[in-house]
Specification:
The chain is an alpha+beta fold. The chain has 3 domains: 48 residues, Roll (Structural Genomics Hypothetical 15.5 Kd Protein In mrcA-pckA Intergenic Region, Chain A); 112 residues, Alpha-Beta Plaits (2-Layer Sandwich), CATH 3.30.70; 79 residues, 2-Layer Sandwich (Alpha-Beta Plaits). It is built from 6 helices and 17 strands. Strands 6, 9, 10, 13, 14, 15, 16 and 17 form an 8-stranded mixed β-sheet that branches.
C-alpha cells in the first residue's frame, strides 16, 4: 500500500508588504502607512501603488513630499448617464410578483461606467484618480432607466444629506423631446398643475426650448426627485415623449460632459 505523500508547503512569497516598508521609512504605524498608500501618496519605482499588501523587494519607494493623512477626502462624481442604464441603486421591485421578477432582464448599471477609461478628458478638478474613489458611492438623486443626463454619485455624507434632506427645494431641470409641438393650452395645463385621484401632483414649470422638423424640446423644472412624474404628465396631456435628459440638479450643470463620461465635482460647485 502506497503511503500518501506529504503535501508540499507553498513557497513563501518574495519580499515584504509595502505598508511595512513605508511604516519603517516614515516612520509611522502600520495603519498610517496603509492610509498613505491608499491615499495615493506612495510610488514604487515611479509608479503609483494603492495596495498596502503590494510586495516589494529592492524597488525605490517614494513618499510624496506633500503627503498628509488629513487629505483623504471623500469625493463626488458627476456622470452623463446614457438612456437604458439604471441609476446604480437597488431597484424597488417588492410589489412585482416573483415570476415576473425572474423573467425581467435587469438594465445595465450606470456604475459600470465609473472607471478610469470613462473619465472625461477635460476634467478640470485636478484630482488624482484613486481606486478607492469608486467604493462606497451612493446615488441620492434617482433618474429613470429610459432617461439620460446628469447623475450624481457621492462618498461624501454632507453631499448625500444635502440631496436627500433638502430634496424638496432642490430644482431639477429636464429637457424633454416630444413628437410635434405642444399647443399653448397644453403648456398652460402643465404649468397650472394636474391632480391624480383628487390629489395634486408636484408642480412643474414648462417652457418651449426649441422646435422644428416635426419635434420639439420642452424644458421642465421641478423641485425634488419624482421618477415617472414627467412621463405621466406628458401622457395626461397627450404628448408623446421621444427622449428625456436631465441637465441640472440644483446649481450643478451637465454642460458639455460627453455621454457615458464622468468627472469629479469641482470645489466651487454646490447643489
Amino acid at each position: 500500500m502506497t503511503s500518501p505523500r506529504n503535501p508540499v508547503p507553498p513557497a513563501p512569497r518574495p519580499g515584504e508588504r509595502l505598508a511595512k516598508r513605508v511604516a519603517e521609512m516614515v516612520p509611522c504605524s502600520r495603519r498610517e502607512a496603509e492610509q498613505y498608500i491608499e491615499g495615493g501618496w506612495v510610488r514604487v519605482d515611479g509608479q503609483l501603488v494603492e495596495e498596502p499588501q503590494f510586495r516589494v523587494l529592492n524597488q525605490v519607494i517614494e513618499l510624496d513630499k506633500n503627503a498628509t493623512l488629513m487629505g483623504n477626502t471623500q469625493v463626488t462624481l458627476v456622470l452623463h448617464k446614457p438612456p437604458g442604464y439604471a441609476d446604480g441603486e437597488d431597484d424597488d421591485d417588492e410589489d412585482v410578483p416573483a415570476q415576473r421578477r425572474e423573467k425581467k432582464t435587469p438594465p445595465r448599471s450606470a456604475r459600470q461606467l465609473l472607471t478610469a477609461a470613462h473619465r472625461a478628458d477635460d476634467d478640470a478638478s485636478g484630482i488624482t484618480l484613486l481606486k478607492r474613489h469608486f467604493t462606497g458611492l451612493s446615488a441620492p438623486v434617482p433618474l429613470e432607466v429610459g432617461a439620460g443626463g446628469l447623475l450624481v454619485f457621492t462618498q461624501d455624507w454632507r453631499v448625500e444629506r444635502k440631496l436627500t434632506e433638502d430634496a424638496g427645494v432642490i430644482e431639477h431641470e429636464v429637457i424633454v423631446e416630444i413628437e410635434g409641438e405642444a399647443a399653448p393650452e397644453t403648456l398652460l395645463r402643465l404649468n397650472q398643475g394636474l391632480s391624480s385621484d383628487g390629489h395634486p401632483l408636484p408642480r412643474v414649470k414648462v417652457s418651449v426650448n426649441s422646435s422644428g422638423e416635426g419635434k420639439s424640446k420642452l424644458r421642465f423644472a421641478v423641485k425634488g426627485t419624482h421618477p415617472g412624474l414627467i412621463a405621466y404628465l406628458c401622457e395626461r396631456v397627450g404628448l408623446r415623449i421621444l427622449s428625456m435628459k436631465r441637465i441640472r440638479v440644483g446649481r450643478v450643470l451637465l454642460t458639455t460632459l460627453p455621454i457615458g463620461r464622468w468627472r469629479y465635482l469641482l470645489p466651487h460647485e454646490r447643489f
